[in-house]
């Protein structure tokens, strides 16, 4: 039992280390001839979004950018819940009394 607890702690520590390293990563993509630019961090958070004025009226640009960021955040949360349920269905982490 103590061996499984140690494995769980090691796995948790590795996950935290990975999450910390991923937080420092960043990816930027350009589409529509560089008129839409999106940046995401390693934790899948949308950190920046730029849309060229040519693609829309300037008075609605900020609202659209905010809406896209919010929608992205919502869809990521929902997908993470689905992924967690699928992991659980597949056995997930070993059952450790007091931690599940």
Q: What does this protein look like?
A:
- This protein has 2 helices and 3 strands.
- The chain has 100 residues and is an alpha+beta fold.
- It has a domain at 25-89: Ybab, Chain: A (2-Layer Sandwich).
- A hairpin with a 4-residue loop joins β2 and β3.
- The radius of gyration is 19 Å and the shape is elongated.
Q: The CATH topology of one domain is what?
A: Ybab, Chain: A
Spatial sequence of strands, sheet with the most strands: 1-2-3
Distance N terminus to C terminus? 15 Å
Could you give a short account of the major beta sheet? 3 strands, antiparallel
Give the fraction of residues assigned to helices: 40-55%
CATH architecture of one domain: 2-Layer Sandwich
What order do the SSEs take from the amino end to the carboxyl end, as H and E? Answer: HEEEH
According to DSSP, the number of beta strands is 3
Class inferred from helices and paired strands: alpha+beta
CATH secondary-structure class of one domain: Alpha Beta
C-alpha Rg (nearest Å): 19 Å
Low-confidence stretches: none
Q: Look at the structure and give the mean pLDDT.
A: 81
